[in-house]
Specification:
With 335 residues, this protein is an alpha/beta fold. The chain has helices at 2-5, 41-55, 71-82, 97-105, 123-136, 150-167, 182-194, 245-259, 265-277, 305-310, 314-326, and strands spanning 13-20, 23-31, 63-67, 86-92, 109-113, 173-177, 199-205, 239-243, 286-291, 330-334. A hairpin with a 2-residue loop joins strand 1 and strand 2 (23-31). The two termini are 38 Å apart. Bound molecules: pyridoxal-5'-phosphate (PLP).
């Protein structure tokens, strides 16, 4: 497993000036899309595989199985191939076709779960399928990103320190999207220890149960979940923002219109939460949004008018966009 040890390298940040309500604000975006398979889950996959290998070596030919909405699957596929093991990805009806194609092309066996879980998603159905397959095949190894402490730990050791270093002493607020809650729990553990003054905002989706709330329709892949996080406690964050899909889409599209850069859905949600905080009595002076992935995978959803029509959100997105632009929103990326 030596080949996995050096797999995590620091991702860059870009500096953005955000004009809003007559003032200019400083924002850093941390681009996890620049990891080897395009998302922050390259870190998580490394931490998980090193952990299960430590418990019992992953000898060539071992079958690794995991429930994933896409990003962790792509990350595991790359690493599992490197160590000559076999990977079964349990995905669901919402996993985008380009992600399915990429998984299949890298030799992954796909199991697609199409039965909604009654909580606005498919997660509980996916987890049931993984458990059934593990019972039927006791040799299968399940990293279990929803429970394995190696998930938050890799972010405590890598993502957290990078944020502190890149944000500098002025950094006062950090926005982190949640699904398993592993990214946020790890970042928070590090920030609370070394920079307790930084305000941490959990960015969740409406209809998600990760930070409380009630289950319901969720449209943005990778953001939120049909269950509470095993890793987060109320002390892990200072505020939770539940972003509706129309706000996510409006933020992603406005950022793309101004900068030419397409962010992923959960990154747009973090951006929208940040904009909301600019109306607070004490707005962030220097904030950082973790951007878990880029916009390429969302060309058929967040950036697609036909998809928007099919979700009946076209008018709602137009409303949010008009409101943001009337408030003078403009993004400028400094190079
Ligand atoms: C698109 C996206 N959003 C948000 C997250 C945060 O997820 P988690 O809470 O599972 O660390 C991830 C993690 O990879 C992601 O891929």
């Amino acid at each position: 497993m030596e080949e996995l040890r050096d797999n995590v390298t620091a991702t860059p940040t870009s500096f953005v000036v955000v004009e809003y309500r007559g003032r200019a604000h400083e924002l850093l975006l941390k681009h996890e899309s620049l990891n080897p398979t395009g998302s922050i889950k390259d870190r998580t996959a490394t931490g998980l595989l090193l952990d299960i290998d430590r418990l019992k070596p992953l000898v060539p030919g071992t079958v690794v199985i995991e429930s994933t909405s896409g990003n962790l699957g792509l990350a595991l596929a790359r690493l599992v191939r490197q160590i000559d093991c076999h990977f079964i990805a349990v995905v669901d009806a919402r996993t985008p076709q380009p992600t399915r194609d990429a998984l299949t092309e890298s030799g992954v066996e796909l199991r697609s779960v199409d039965e909604p879980d009654g909580q606005g998603g498919y997660l509980l159905s996916r987890l049931r399928t993984v458990r059934e397959l593990c019972l039927a095949h006791p040799g299968h190894r399940w990293p279990n990103q929803y429970h394995n402490r190696a998930n938050p730990l890799i972010h405590e050791r890598t993502t957290g320190p990078e944020i502190v270093r890149q944000g500098g002493p002025e950094l006062d607020t950090v926005y982190v999207a949640v699904s398993t809650g592993g990214t946020l729990a790890g970042i928070s553990a590090h920030l609370r220890a070394v920079a307790p003054g930084i305000r941490i905002v959990a960015v969740d989706s409406t209809g998600s149960l990760v930070t409380g709330g009630t289950g319901g329709r969720r449209l943005i892949a990778g953001l939120g979940a049909s269950r509470a996080s095993s890793f987060l406690t109320p002390a892990s964050y200072d505020a939770a923002a539940r972003v509706p899909p129309e706000a996510t889409v409006a933020a992603c599209r406005a950022f793309h219109e101004d900068t030419g850069i397409r962010l992923g859905g959960s990154s747009g949600s973090a951006l929208y939460s940040y904009l909301g905080d600019l109306t607070r009595r004490t707005p962030p002076r220097r904030a950082l949004c973790v951007c878990p992935d880029g916009g390429q995978k969302y060309l058929g959803t967040v950036y697609d008018d036909a998809w928007l029509d099919s979700t009946s959100l076209t008018a709602a997105v137009a409303d949010v966009t008009r409101r943001l632009r009337e408030d003078g929103l403009r993004f400028h990326v400094e190079v």
